[in-house]
Specification:
Helix content: 55-70%
Radius of gyration: 11 Å
Number of helices: 3
Shape: globular
Structural class: mainly alpha
Bound molecules: zinc ion
Strand content: under 5%
Distance between the termini: 21 Å
């Protein structure tokens, strides 16, 4: 698992992030870093809302 520290420094997850913000964060994260996968709950949310990757 490789961590893109620079990306994490520039893209901190906001505190009390809404589900939409978390989805956006994770989609951006996935493209830039692979330290952790998208949580299953968020994947369900992405599918339900049909958010484009
Ligand atoms: Zn990461």
């Amino acid at each position: 698992m490789k961590i893109n520290k620079e990306w994490h420094e520039k893209n901190k997850m906001p505190k009390n992030a809404k589900i939409e913000e978390r989805v956006k964060w994770h989609l951006a994260h996935q493209k830039n870093c692979h330290c952790r996968p998208i949580p299953e709950k968020l994947l369900i949310e992405i599918k339900r809302k049909n958010i484009k990757h």
